[in-house]
Write a structure and sequence with these properties.
CATH architecture: 3-Layer(aba) Sandwich
Distance between the termini: 35 Å
Largest sheet: 9 strands, mixed
Shape: globular
Order of helices and strands: HHEHHEHEEHEHHEEEEEHHEHHE
Number of domains: 1
Number of helices: 12
Helix content: 25-40%
Number of strands: 12
CATH class: Alpha Beta
Oligomer: single chain
Length: 335
């Protein structure tokens, strides 16, 4: 029986997900839940250009980016090129296989991103996507103190979260966008980490923050935050604004321990960002009625419990993470 490439790729993805679920913590080292990846892709919109994932795992970010391009009637092979770095030999092989079964190719290399900038990333990429390991300690800061990938400085705490965030930021070209997953604690970190966060905000790079509820990941039950950077917004009316979305109570309950986003829920979240940016909406996955209910005038507006645009002065007065936590709850969940 012949199986078309995309169908075979979906089978491979399915078994990657099942394996990650059964492996727990170890499985999470290479697999990011598909609905989270899809949301990142829909918000950064990688239509054309170089895509970089410095913690690429099994390559799910690349696969979904190619699918996004294909869904918009373009040829992924002609529109995007992918570059990845991963520290584990076996996971590099998984990534290359995942790309191959989806009919894709990419420059995927083994390396330790903290110390090795294998792809000479600074200012090179149109898009960066990643699910880095959270709260890593014992990074040798002496080895990276002069690395240009850390323009806002080396954080003093023994925690690599703000090293990763700077890797993502510095890899972007002048109009580049990044989307990545980060521990909630990074949004509330103090001291030198707060100074780095302030630098990112004052540079006009932080565009969107999405609070995601618990049980989306196979490795941890804790909630997380999706960060989105956009260096290209400097010359827009969004230059010193940030959109905060509370998606903690938007989900489908898969089983007692796992959740994901349904296609219409995911599309709604991405369309909130499109309204904020003044972009054309996409409604192929059934979000039309929810959009009419939430945004009857067809324009972005703050909605208590769901979304709010904050200015730089409001962020300074209210503290960054408080703007995420203060959202009242707007529940759109289904079993």
């Amino acid at each position: 029986m012949d199986i078309e490439g995309d169908a075979f790729g979906k089978i491979y993805e399915y078994f990657l997900g099942k394996f990650a679920m059964s492996e727990g913590q170890k499985g999470g080292e290479f697999f990011t839940p598909t609905s989270i990846v899809k949301l990142i892709v829909e918000i950064i919109e990688p239509y054309h250009g170089r895509i970089y994932d410095p913690a690429c795992g099994s390559g799910g970010m690349f696969v979904q980016s190619a699918r996004f391009v294909k869904n918009h009637k373009k040829n992924p092979g002609a529109e995007i090129s992918v570059y990845g770095e991963e520290k584990t030999t076996e996971t590099v092989r998984l990534c290359k296989m995942n790309l191959a079964v989806h009919g894709l190719s990419g420059d995927i290399r083994e390396g330790n991103t903290y110390y090795e900038d294998i792809h000479k990333s600074v200012g090179r990429f149109s898009f960066v996507m990643a699910n880095p390991p959270f709260n890593v300690d014992r990074v040798d800061k002496e080895r990276i103190k002069d690395d240009p990938r850390f323009p806002f400085g080396i954080p003093k705490p023994d925690n690599a979260n703000y090293l990763w965030i700077q890797v993502f930021y510095s890899a972007l070209n002048e109009s580049g966008r990044a989307g990545f997953i980060m521990a909630n604690s990074a949004s509330d970190a103090r001291g030198s980490e707060q100074d780095i966060r302030k630098g990112l905000i004052e540079a006009g790079a932080v565009d969107v923050m999405v609070a995601v509820g618990s049980n989306f990941f196979y490795t941890v039950t804790l909630p997380c935050t999706l960060w989105f950077l956009d260096k290209g917004k400097k010359n827009t009316d969004r230059s010193y604004k940030i959109l905060f979305i509370d998606a903690r109570h938007i989900y489908r309950q898969i089983d007692r321990a796992h959740r994901d986003f349904l296609p219409d829920q995911l599309e709604l979240l991405a369309n909130i960002v499109r309204l904020y940016r003044g972009e054309e909406l996409e409604t192929t996955n059934g979000s039309t009625e929810m959009l009419k209910e939430k945004f009857p005038d067809g324009e972005y507006t703050d909605i208590p419990g769901m979304c709010r645009v904050a200015t730089l002065s409001e962020i300074e007065a209210d503290q960054f993470y408080e703007l995420v936590k203060k959202k009242s709850r707007s529940k759109i969940s289904r079993s």
